[in-house]
Amino acid sequence: MKLITKRADYAIRALCVMAKNGQRMYSAFELAKKLKIPGPFLRRILQILNKRGVLKSYKGQGGGFILALQPDNIFLIDLIEIFQGPVKLNECLFKAKICPSISTCILRRKVDEIEKFVVSELSSININSLLN
């Protein structure tokens, strides 16, 4: 299990570069070169962030991407959920059947506590806090 996948990591890194330089517009190519990330892969990530309202995109010569939200309002938990879905540390499934011990499993309760803590921590980290 990976807590943060490559797509979420690249999104976070690109947003940090953008946030560090204020309301400047960036092309996908420029960000990819700066971050040493494959351009087409980063372009798809930026397009997803645009569709989700984190970025705004402008087409044509001189176009690119710009932050649609303030860095204080872009949280890691939201970015992880955009690219990975909800944070789940506990999958109580065995060959597509629900575990018969699901209601009494001691391990499940502990993992649920850890999951709540992780989600809480990720919910408190925003792009701006990563820059400081």
Principal-axes shape call: elongated
Care to count the β-strands? 4
* CATH fold descriptor of the domain at 6-87 and 127-131: Arc Repressor Mutant, subunit A
CATH architecture descriptor name of the domain at 6-87 and 127-131: Orthogonal Bundle
Provide the succession of SSEs.
HHHEEHEEHH
Q: Helicity level, as a percent range?
A: 40-55%
Just give the CATH class of the domain at 6-87 and 127-131: Mainly Alpha
**Sequence stretches where pLDDT stays below 50 over 5 or more residues:** none
Q: Count every helix, treating DSSP H or I runs of 4 or more residues as helices.
A: 6
Computed over alpha carbons, the radius of gyration is 18 Å
Alpha-carbon distance between the two ends: 29 Å
Q: How many strands, which pairing sense, and closed or not: the largest β-sheet? A: 2 strands, antiparallel
* Main sheet: strand order: 1-2
Task: Tell me the CATH superfamily of the domain at 6-87 and 127-131.
Answer: Winged helix-like DNA-binding domain superfamily/Winged helix DNA-binding domain
**Given the helix and strand composition, which structural class is it?**
mainly alpha
Strand content: 5-15%
**Arithmetic mean of pLDDT:** 89
Question: What do you see in this structure?
Answer:
With 132 residues, the chain is mainly alpha-helical. It has a domain at 6-87 and 127-131: Winged helix-like DNA-binding domain superfamily/Winged helix DNA-binding domain (Arc Repressor Mutant, subunit A). It is 52% helix and 9% strand. The strands form 2 sheets. The protein has a two-stranded antiparallel ribbon. A two-stranded antiparallel ribbon has the order 3-4. α1 (6-20) crosses α3 (39-51). It is elongated and about 60 Å long. The two termini are 29 Å apart. The model has no long low-confidence stretch (mean pLDDT 89).
